[in-house]
Every structure is written in structure tokens, then in C-alpha cells.
Specification:
- There is one protein chain.
- α2 crosses α4 and α3 packs antiparallel against α4.
- This protein has 5 helices and 11 strands.
- By secondary structure, the chain is of the alpha+beta class.
Length: 205
Amino acid sequence: MNFGLQDRSIMQPDIPTHTLEHEHGSAISFERILVSDSEVHNSVHRHDYNELFVFASGTGTHMIDLRPHSISTPSVHVVRGGQVHQLVRSADMEGFVVMFAPSVLSDPMRRQDAQTVFDGMDNTNGLPLDGTKSGILNELASMLEGERGDGAATQVHVQEGYLGIMLAKCARWWRERLPDEGAREYGRGFWSQQWLGLMRLAGRA
């Protein structure tokens, strides 16, 4: 799977590309979406990295590859590296965005979870959250934010761990929304087998 720049006809040279490590200095970056004085209209752009948005409150429209997504809150939206997007949000919107380079998805399980999340976004209007799910992601975000610093290897490793949990949670919640019950059961069985295999390797099963 290619989680970097996508080979899409929509990618034209006159659309600006934002670069994560050049602009933020690391493979993972975190930003809060804060209340503003007026409605915010971001310019159309793309990235060489992936983004996971959690919209906690407010309203808006998120255009991804020319497809408009109405923002209901709380909810999750994701954008793959290379996709063209634009966010128009109300002044009262709050939330956060985690930006992460393709290299962060080198772990096979994390890559599989990311693929599930990206596929979910391709086929829905986003992942709606209830209070419990929103609270889990906000807690993980606070812990990830607390690890920001000088980019030491241990800090990056911990950040990748928190992001991995976020992706795993969102992947599971998106799978639970699959319309086909058989697909849900397949997903549960697959991940149960993966977990059992890990426990056997650790000598616990």
C-alpha cells in the first residue's frame, strides 16, 4: 500500500503541497483546532503526509478530492498523503489533527489499521463518535501532545505508539459500522487470531 503521494489525476502542479518534516521537523505532528473570531476557509492544498482529524464541536464542510463531506460532531475524518482537500469550518469548531508521515506506517499492524481507516473515509461521510469514543481519542491526543519535544528517538517511539492506538481504535469502530455482518465477524476473527498469535509468541497462551 502507498500511504505517500497518491497517483491521482487531480494532483496538478499549481496546487500547493505541504511537507511535514520541512514544516514541522518530525514524522508526527499535532495541532489543536481552536475557536476563532469568524468562519475559517482553508485554501485548497495537499500534503506529502497523512492526517487524522477529530472534530469535537462545530460544523463545516471538508472537501477531499472534490468530494464534499459535511462535518457532524464529534467525528473523525482522515486524509491520505497526496489527496487534495479544503476545510471550511465554523468559528466555534474545536478538535485536533494528527499529521503523520508514511514512514510511521512501517509497522504491518499499524499499516493495516490505517488502510481500514482510509477505506472507511472513502466510503462514508466520516466516523461519528459517541461521548465515550470521543473521550478516548481526546485522552490519547493529550498524551501524544505531551510527548512533543526535541524529537528524541524515545519520544518519537511513544508518539508512534499513541498514534497506533488511535488508528487501531478508529479501525475497529469503522469495521463495526460495516453493513455486512459477515464482514464484521470476519474482522473480529482475524484480529482475534492476530492477538492470539502475539500471546503465543510471548509465551502467554
